[in-house]
Amino acid sequence: MKAAIVTSAGTKPTFGEFQNPVSREGLEAITVTAAALTNLTKGRAAGSHYSADNHYPFVPGVDGVGTLTDGRRVYFAMPEAPFGAMAEQTLVDPRRTITLPDNLDDVAAAALANPGMSCFAALIERARFQAGETVLINGATGSAGVVAVQVAKQLGAGKVIVTGRNAHELDTLRSLGADVVIPFDLRSENPQGVAHLEQALTAAFADGLDVVVDYLWGTSARIIIVAVAKAVEDAHPVRFVQVGEASREPVELPAAALRSSAIQIMGSGLKSVPLPRLLEGIRQTFDLAAQGKLYLPTEVVPLSTVTENWEASGKPRLVFTLT
């Protein structure tokens, strides 16, 4: 069968021939129609993600959309190695599939599943979000952040604060539910950037803050933690949920900020949330999308172009198709 194939750590997949999967007890072959390019897929392919098993060659792709032998359209997650989502067929435990709503197309489902899962897991499973609370989304202009803004509003957030590096893109999130927009520039050539962000956050937090969903980590995360200590009411438990590391920067956590606040720092992702609960978040994502309540810019390309598109930025969300 035709597939994207990773032959070693640190190399881009190539398009070629790979062995066909064969159904066996507990595992079913799925004919794949669409698979999104995600940071998780790229990290596992590179061998850098903590869930990678580093056995090569294999087909990349942690999830996708396809049809079962009975004709049902399904979303599937975590195919059986060495098979992945980026192939004509893959092999999956049926318990890791979700039947798609009739009015949700394959490409939209493939694009929304991962970012929808990440924000539902962070908000519901980890932060135990309650309607009416104030949520800050750090790194809101990425695909996951764009979906998180909408999901937070649909779940009943009283206020959604968004931060990020692109002022224009942040401003477009107002139409999707963002109430407070805080752009920042933390480059070394902008020496006032840290102070400006801390001041803006301190002012925004004066009215309260309950949950932070962080897709960036790095300097911006540290500044948020400091601002929480300075501005949030004494002993109010702010739940800081770390989801992604787009900044590729480490964080030196300020001990004084931890001692002088009730901030609760936790992570969200594979192994921190049980797979059935992650799948439930995806199911809820699909329900919202089928109702026309989620928007995500998407670009569709054939899987045969996987090598040249492997380093795509993620904006718009790239989806490989096989039909």
Highlighted features:
Quinone Oxidoreductase, Chain A, domain 1; Rossmann fold; 7-stranded mixed β-sheet; alpha/beta; 323 residues; 9 helices; 2 domains
Q: Could you characterize the architecture of this molecule?
A:
Helix content is 31%, strand content 22%. Helix 2 (106-126) packs across helix 8 and helix 5 crosses helix 6. The strands form three sheets. Strands 3, 4, 5, 6, 7, 14 and 15 form a seven-stranded mixed beta sheet that branches. Strands 10-9-8-11-12-13 form a six-stranded parallel beta sheet, with helices on both faces. It folds into two domains: 2-99 and 293-321, Quinone Oxidoreductase, Chain A, domain 1, CATH 3.90.180.10; 115-267, NAD(P)-binding Rossmann-like Domain (Rossmann fold). It is built from nine helices and 15 strands. The protein is globular. Strand 14, helix 9 and strand 15 form a beta-alpha-beta unit. By secondary structure, the chain is α/β, with parallel strands linked by helices. The protein has helices spanning 39-46, 106-126, 143-154, 167-172, 193-205, 218-231, 255-259, 275-290, 306-309; strands spanning 2-5, 14-17, 28-36, 63-67, 73-77, 89-92, 97-99, 134-138, 159-164, 180-183, 211-214, 239-242, 264-267, 298-302, 317-321.
